[in-house]
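[Q] Does anyone have a clean structure-token version of this?
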Amino acid sequence: MPGWRNGIRTTLKMSRPKGSVGSSPTPGTSRSPPPYDGGFCGAIAFSPIGYNKSMVITLQEGDSLCIRRGVHALREGGVIAFPTETTYGIGCDPRNNNAVRRIFRLKGRDPVKTLLLVASSFKQAESVAIIEGPARELAKKYWPGPLTLVLPVRKDANLARGAFVAGTVAIRVSSSPIVQRLTHAFGFPIVATSANRTGEQNNRSSAAVRELFGERVDVILDGGTLPLRSVSTLARVDDDGNISVLRKGAIRLPSRIHS
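[A] Here you go.
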């Protein structure tokens, strides 16, 4: 049985199964996300939602099993960790109040602040946010990529408190193949906040995430060690196209965009 025996990790290597995640379109997405393009993805699964404790699965030819584990955890109300285009993040279903509260507790985050979301496509982002006018032009220019926009939230999105604030939601279409496959398979945007304690350094490996959170995170998707990158830029755009940068990051924005 693959897993941890007497403190030693054992690994099961598998080829990509037929009917893999992402092979058929999911409602709310316009196209299939790109395949995973880097190394391996190991899923470290813990016990709170029924997995064998600390099992590691390594896929040589794809990441379908890893994605299915992550999606299952999300649907069960779990909290997962995963690599993004910037750093490792932790996330959950943004409609699940208990899961969102767990993330606030894990990070020690101020409850008046909101969590960021990621989506697999422009269409999926529109399922929770109203993207119009200059904001739409800005999104089209930089998505997918590390630009998070603060946008009006759709009332019918049914987001939990903490996944939106003051009628707005912060969201981006991620350029990470793993995140795109995960959100595509889940069929809805997910929370994606840095996998660290608030105010502490970002974590760039699954080992660092596991050392920090241990079994308080239900599943860790292991995408290896990430290169050092800036966080996503966080910005807001008014109706006249004026851009306010709320957090500097990977993308340098002009002061105004013309629609």
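[Q] Thanks! Anything notable?
[A] Residues 4-14+34-247 form a domain with the DHBP synthase fold (CATH 3.90.870.10).
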